[in-house]
Amino acid sequence: MSTKNWPLWEIFVRSKNGLEHRHFGSLHAADAEMALENARDVYTRRNEGVSIWVVESKHITASNPEHNGEMFEPAQDKVYRHPTFYDLPDEIKHM
Amino acid sequence: MSEEQIKNLEEQFEARIARDEKIEPKDWMPEKYRQTHIRQMSQHAHSEIVGMLPEGNWITRAPSLRRKVALLAKVQDEAGHGLYLYSATETLGISRDEMYEQLHTGKAKYSSIFNYPALTWADMGAIGWLVDGAAIINQVPLCNTSFGPYARAMIRVCKEESFHQRQGYEIMLKLCNGTPEQKEMAQDALNRWWWPSLMMLGPTDAESIHTEQSMKWKLKRKSNDDLRQQFIDQTVPQADILGLTIPDPDLKWNEERGCYDFGEIDWDEFWQVVKGHGPMNKERMKARVGAWERGEWVRDAAMAYAEKQGERKAKQVV
Ligand SMILES: [Fe+2]
Ligand SMILES: [Fe+2]
């Protein structure tokens, strides 16, 4: 039995310049360099990417869906953050 | 949590799925949902991995460079499918090592089709055409399944599968337009892979235990028998184009039903193979476990190297 398992890495791929890196999935690798090489083979076999980021999964802090209420609900009643909240006469153009 | 609270959560959960909302790994979920998904997704991953064995065996014997690069790419895709699915399953809290352990000890199953041998080059054609064909029919509805990571993995998988089936059919086409011996080889491969491919779509609805719950969770959208009918109806005309005969004397177009009638499936054979008595069960597990064991020193060495590099870096910082 192996003494230690390869850690898990999260893989982010930029599919082409002008677009952001997007989460593609995860994989196991001994270190960052190997994670990059494996990510190339697992997630970009058909030109799906021009750039890859790898982050060891343990370094990601995620919000807890059980706290979604206090986290995200405060934004719900702030309609004044949207342009349609403001009443302007129809004659106004380009605004 | 009280029973009342859990019941409440479960109702909300089912309602979310009914509204076509996706469930993500950190969301609350009933324990049964988690366990069912771990089981189905890991078995799916195992099938992709074990599925490499019958074809991997033919890469060095491919008849041309064109066929060789295609088969190599196809087998590599299957490895990728296994990896997408393993990592999606890990989001449910089971480790990769536990899953391997379940496969290697026989606790977890994989698709029984891979317990049949690939005897000739024509089998590479028949597997791509029929086995990947049946897999596509099983997998397309899963692109809309309720568990987010599974659905996303399936979208990637399905995009890649159509090349698999087409390269297989092209192999069959070439053989069928070749010498009489080559055509005979193609017919022989169809004869051996036809019935196992039908079985691949699962036991008949009457025997299938999980269907109702699976339908609710969108792990299934059509019953096994409906999927099988769909597979037969789309495959028979493809066999006609090849000039091959489906090995079923009862196969007949039914004008009234608008689909093909077909003969009795030998379910005894199916259950025998599932229970481990197929022609290649032992061989497949031996190959799989052997590869894992022979790779152990490589995994350990890579980890030792990574740790050493990490320590060296830490020292430099000090
Ligand atoms: Fe696959
Ligand atoms: Fe495939």
Q: Numbering strands along the chain, what is their spatial order in the largest sheet of chain B?
A: 1-2
State mean pLDDT of chain A (0 to 100 scale): 94
How is the largest sheet of chain A built, in terms of strand order? 2-1-3
Computed over alpha carbons, the radius of gyration of chain B is 22 Å
The N- and C-terminal alpha carbons of chain B lie at a distance of 49 Å
Main sheet characteristics of chain A: 3 strands, antiparallel
The biggest beta sheet of chain B, please? Answer: 2 strands, antiparallel
What fraction strand of chain B? Answer: under 5%
Q: What ranges of chain B have pLDDT less than 50 throughout 5 or more consecutive residues?
A: none
CA-CA gap between termini of chain A:
68 Å
Oligomeric form: heterodimer
What does this structure look like?
- The complex is a heterodimer of chains A (95) and B (318).
- Chain A has 95 residues and is α+β, with helices and mostly antiparallel strands.
- Chain A is built from two helices and three strands.
- The termini of chain A are far apart.
- The mean pLDDT of chain A is 94.
- Chain A has a three-stranded antiparallel beta sheet with strand order 2-1-3, covered by helices on one side.
- Chain B is mainly alpha-helical and 318 residues long.
- Helices cover 68% and strands 2% of the residues of chain B.
- Chain B contains 13 helices and two strands.
- Chain B has helices spanning 3-18, 31-50, 52-56, 65-90, 96-104, 122-139, 148-176, 180-199, 211-216, 224-242, 267-277, 281-294, 296-317; strands spanning 252-254, 259-261.
- In chain B, strand 1 and strand 2 form a beta hairpin.
- In chain B, helix 2 (31-50) runs antiparallel to helix 4, helix 6 packs parallel to helix 8 and helix 6 (122-139) runs antiparallel to helix 10.
- The termini of chain B are far apart.
- The mean pLDDT of chain B is 95.
- Chains A and B meet through strand 2 and helix 1 of A and helix 4, helix 7 and helix 13 of B.
- The site of one fe (ii) ion (FE2) has 5 residues of chain B, from helix 6 and helix 7.
